[in-house]
Amino acid sequence: MYDLDARKRALALVAEGRSLNSVSKQTGASRAAIRSWLVRLEPLPSVTRRGQCVRCRPQPGPPAAPGPYAYLLGLYLGDGCVSRQYRGNYSLRIICADAWPGLIDACADAIRAVRPENKVFRVQRQGCVAVTSCSIHWPCLFPQHGPGPKHERRIALESWQQAVVDAYPWPFIRGLVHSDGCRITNWTERTTRGATKRYEYPRYFFTNRSADIIRLFCDALDRVGVEWKAGGQRTRPAENISVARRASVALMDVHVGPKY
C-alpha cells in the first residue's frame, strides 16, 4: 500500500513527461497503480472494504446464508484452515478427497453462498482438491483460526456462531461428518442351532483429535436427538464418536447421508 506522498511523487514524475514504465521502475509501483492514481489520488478508506462484511460493521450481524455457513463451519473445523497472505489478505482452504466429487462441489457452493464477492478455486493435489478462496474477511467469519493444529489449541464458538449452529444444527453436523466422518456398513455373525447368519447394519463415525471439536459435534447431536457413543462409553474426551442406533442412523440418513 502506497501512502499519499509516494503517490504524489509518482504523479509528479509523470507530469514531467516521464513514461509510466520509467516511473514504475523508479518508484516500484505498477503501471496499473499509477494509472489508477491519475483518476483518484487518495487511497480508498479501509472501512469501505471492511463494510462489505457483516461481521466488520459497527454492529455486527449474522453471516449471509446462515445454513451454508453452518455447513462450511463444519467443513472448516474438520479439514480447513485460514492462512494469512499478502497485504492483509487471507486464504480459506478446505481439503476434499478426490473420491468425493459431490463433496467438492458442495464445499465450493457453500463458499460462494457465504462470500459471493470472492472467487473460488480448486487446486489439485495428490489425491485431493484444496477448495480455496481469498478474502480479508475470513478471520471475521472463522475467528477460530490460528497457528498450529486445532487439537493443540482451544476451539470455542463465539456467541453469534453458536446461535447459527443452534438454528441450523443439521448443516453443521453434515459439514463435520463430510470432513472427518463417514457412513459405513458394519456386519456381525451369529450362530444359532449350528447355523451361522451374517447381519449387516449401517453406522456413522466421526473422528477428530480435538476434544473441543468432539464436544461441539456431540452437543449438536444431542440437540437433534441423535444417540451416540464415544469409545464404548458416553464420555466427551474420546476421539471417535459412533452412531449405531437404528432410529438415530435413520435421522442421520435423512439429514446427512453418505459422502458422494
Brief overview, please?
The protein contains eleven helices and eight strands. With 260 residues, the chain is an alpha+beta fold.
Instruction: Return residue spans where pLDDT drops below 50 for at least 5 consecutive residues.
Output: 44-51
How are strands sequenced across the largest beta sheet?
1-2-4-3
Task: Work out the helix count.
Answer: 11
Major pleated sheet: 4 strands, antiparallel
Tell me the strand percentage band: 15-25%
SSE arrangement, N to C: HHHHHEEHEEHHHEEHEEH
CATH class of the domain at 179-255: Alpha Beta
CATH architectural name of the domain at 179-255: Roll
Features of the shown structure:
single chain, 260 residues, alpha+beta, Endonuclease I-creI, four-stranded antiparallel sheet, 8 strands, 43% helix, elongated
Outline the structure in words.
- With 260 residues, the protein is of the alpha+beta class.
- Among the domains are: 4-43; 179-255, Roll (Endonuclease I-creI), CATH 3.10.28.
- It is built from eleven helices and eight strands.
- It has helices at residues 4-15, 20-27, 31-39, 46-50, 66-79, 101-114, 138-141, 159-167, 169-180, 211-224, 246-255, and strands spanning 80-84, 90-97, 121-125, 128-135, 181-192, 195-207, 229-230, 240-243.
- The relative contact order is 0.11.
- Residues 44-51 have low confidence and may be disordered.
